[in-house]
Amino acid sequence: SQQGEEDPQALSIQEGENATMNCSYKTSINNLQWYRQNSGRGLVHLILIRSNEREKHSGRLRVTLDTSKKSSSLLITASRAADTASYFCATARGAAGNKLTFGGGTRVLVKP
Amino acid sequence: DTEVTQTPKHLVMGMTNKKSLKCEQHMGHRAMYWYKQKAKKPPELMFVYSYEKLSINESVPSRFSPECPNSSLLNLHLHALQPEDSALYLCASSQERAGGRQSSFFGPGTRLTVL
Q1: CA-based angle A73:A112:A89, to the nearest 5?
Q2: Strands B110-114 and B10-13, bridge-based pairing
Q3: Phi/psi of residue A69, each to 5°?
Q4: How far apart are the first and last CA of chain A?
């Protein structure tokens, strides 16, 4: 079963606009990770936010985490056509390894 | 080298065939994973190897048989698959002690079609 649910399932925006997607999860976490997947290919790690962090930035990406609401958001600012992809949040279970449970994903289409 | 490679990129097989998927990484990661991803769905964990030993099998049917010959290689042997097994199979690796504190590195996947 999925740990997280993502909202919206799909998002279509114009180049230059911001894209925001949300993720909710069910159990306690140590950290939450965001990944991007281009058109049925491998996943690329974007950013990891620890449970004691509330906000983290990486380039045009901004991630927030609210552990009281068990939710996280990913904001992509000034979007580009190359940002067109599916975005997944993921939580890891257990102390060993990185056994990921993914949210349902948000498909983002950035129109030029 | 922060790359995970997978071969083949595409595989079409019949239900009576035996085939293998291969994965390789040279990052010194001692945890390796197989995920299965159906179209428009998130990846789902299948198997976890830790220090070349199978540590987790997520109730995967026995027609999927994983193997970790050494710390850099991970195989997935396929036999008597069903059409519903058609999916993208993703290999990943991470530090064994990541505990969610570090990211996983994913390969590009093998697109499997079972006829």
Answers
A1: 20
A2: parallel
A3: -100, 0
A4: 36
* Separation of alpha carbons B49 and A98, rounded Å: 11
Mean pLDDT, consecutive 10-residue segments, chain A of 112 residues? 72 96 89 91 93 95 96 97 96 79 94 94
Largest CA distance in chain B: 42
Mutate to test the interface with A, among B7, B96, B104, B110 (most CBs of A within 10 A): B104
Tokens of A72: 């996280």
Q: What is the mean pLDDT of residues B34-49?
A: 96
- Say yes or no for a CB contact (<8 Å) between B42 and A105: yes
pLDDT in tens, A82-104: 999 999 999 987 766 788 999 99
Identity of the residue in A41, A88, A92 whose CB atom sits nearest the CB atom of B42: A88
To which residue do tokens 């993208």 refer? B88
Put simply, the answer to whether B42 touches A103 (Cβ < 8 Å) is: yes
B100 and A29 in contact by Cβ < 8 A? yes
- A92 sits in which H/E element: strand A85-93
| Cα separation, A5 vs A70, whole angstroms | 11
Residue of A nearest to B5 (CA): A42
Q: Do B103 and A45 touch (CB under 8 A)?
A: yes
Query: Nearest chain A Cα to B112, which residue?
Result: A40
Give CA–CA dist A56/A63, Å, rounded. Answer: 5
